[in-house]
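seq:
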Amino acid sequence: METDFMLAHRSTTHAPAIPANEPNCAERKMEITVLFTGLSSTLQALAKANDLARDLRALIRLVVPQVVPYPLPLTGPPVLLEFNERRFNALAAAQAVETRVEIFLCRDLDILLEAILPEHSTIVIGGRKRWWPTQEELLARRLCRQGHETILVAAPRQGENAHA
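struct:
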């Protein structure tokens, strides 16, 4: 039987040099996971994760799940992997703290997250605020029930200024 997911790409992008008065990067053990849920919402989540990571001397792990439908082989996603690699490496390079990108090809998001997230992970998810529960809110609730610390960051509405 075919596996339900696979790591398609992993990279590490280092942030600007750490000042001499800060501990060595090797001493950083905490990791803040940002789940990709869309470009604008993930940018908001990365901004929040940067604030947290800087204060906690943590690093950011950007997890990009790419669901591949069953008619396609798991190794043949509908969006070219090279395109996503370039796009997400550029996002990681723009962060103020060390950010690792992990692109996963999977069949089911819940199975993937259960397998790759360590117990009691700190997870930041971006999403839109609606009066009904969104997919991102439902995902955050599921992750909380599994024992993870989950932060849901509301992305601004279309045409709304993020700094207003």
